[in-house]
Amino acid sequence: MKVKKIELYNFRNYKQSTILFNDGLNVIEGVNAQGKTNLIEAIYFCAVGKSFRASREKEVINWDNDIAKIKITIEKEIGEKTIEIIFSKSQKKTIKVDGLPILKIGELLGELNAVFFAPDELRLIKESPEDRRRFMDISLSQTYKDYFYAISKYNKLLQGRNKCIKTYAETDGLKAMINVYNLQMADLCLKIKTYRENFINNVNPYAKLVHEYITSKKESIDLQYLGIEENNVKDIISAFEATFEKDIKLGYTSYGVHRDDIKVLVNDVDVRAFGSQGQQRTCALSIKLAELEIIKQTTKAVPVLLLDDVLSELDDKRKLKLLKFCAKAQTFLTCTEFNFDVPCNKIEIKNGEIKKNN
User: Which structural domain, as residue segments, surrounds residue 163?
Assistant: First the structure.
């Protein structure tokens, strides 16, 4: 799986640009605020159908314009494919694969798999469980459509259950309504738990190898999945029922896979609570690079690797180790200056314009 070129029209600070990529390392170079991250964002959009930073998608449309477009050409074993996303200030975005509109994001997932890492991804380690669940959800949704539909349905049911608790807390029929949600959510809980548990168990050995490589075997990482304990639908329903009174008092659902987490240990110490920022950063990078291998194994195709301003956060030894690792996949690396003697396609960007592409 390779990205051959991307065409941008009124996307962020790009008025109209066509950029060609090679199969290996693509270095996107320029001083700050020139559009380097915007280019990475456009590729990511075509992989998962959403941004890693925009809270409102209409923000990607260039200033006074009404429409923005991304069109990407990818090369797969079956031949070339195109993905096009059209943003409008007056309508919902439109996504097309080979010129044909798709109706659901689930139809896009898997067309272009991508692993993204930036300094902000440190939140995977140090922030809330929600960030670690999001990591699992994005990775699993790219590789298993069944998981994407399961987590989407679960989240809708969860919203409905919470609304039901708040709206009908004083009514006699609440328990009967909640039991309907319990039955529907229990099967999804078991399915989501199984996917996530297997995912972490598969990621863990690769994360260990990557982490030892980056740290020159000075540190060892270990990932532990923290999910619901129940292993069958009947017990999950019982667990939902057992928290009924508690949920009424809280005003929300206190049990379920929406409470899952991942514990990250370095040399048997909880790195979130006791690790240095350097250790936390290296752990986050190791986990994301391990994700690359898992997606490759699952889909039989190497995902593209998107690295945004990562070199600035690493010492020289770790920079070189990372660049060697990048040889495993088509990589898009943004930086302000690149002085390493490695083969690459250097793309220089200034004010949203391509100054060099070779």
Answer: 122-299
